[in-house]
Amino acid sequence: MSKMPKLKIDNSIRALRFEAGEMTQAELANRVGVTRQTIIALEQGKYSPSLELAFRVAQAFGKEIGDVFSCSV
Amino acid sequence: MSKMPKLKIDNSIRALRFEAGEMTQAELANRVGVTRQTIIALEQGKYSPSLELAFRVAQAFGKEIGDVFSCSV
DNA sequence: ACATTATGTAATATATTTCTTACATACATA
DNA sequence: TATGTATGTAAGAAATATATTACATAATGT
């Protein structure tokens, strides 16, 4: 397989949390249905989530997926 | 953790391939940088891809990610 | 000083995605 | 009939995402 450069994907979760009335990481994790560790890892860009998780996060903020995650290339 | 129902995510890859001049699965796999099996599995909804792969597929068609993948609910 | 809440780190286990390889089938066409 | 192309299935390995548990720290309020 042709090794393509890894896409850099960033998200605005941290910003959106605080826009949303300072929603805590634990509360977001709760709504999304994942553990707090997963939210922490996402905010820190430790890995790129599954598409399903990305959709859930967007839903939790009432946003489109493209408003939460973007890839810079 | 609260077991949330799995989101049903569907995509328009198959349609987009043929819109894009009948691009073959192999050609798409090539552009996206994955194997043909991955494209087959995606088209068949076998699993939901990583967000990175989703972005790559969208890019391959010159579309927004929301135009290729959608979640019902 | 103590308890609580929010965030963070880290190690290990489990689940899911993606790769690799091999083979099957249908279709076109020389 | 033989050959090439596009699609499909399947099994196991490898990579990556997510869960689980435990503990650390800073800030806040009593």
UniProtKB/TrEMBL annotation, chains A, B:
It comes from Kordiimonas sediminis. InterPro entries: Cro/C1-type_HTH, Lambda_DNA-bd_dom_sf. Signal peptide: none annotated. This is Transcriptional regulator. Keywords: DNA-binding. The keyword DNA-binding applies. Residues 13-68 form the HTH cro/C1-type domain. The keyword Mitochondrion does not apply. One of its GO terms (molecular function) is DNA binding. Pfam families: HTH_3 (PF01381).
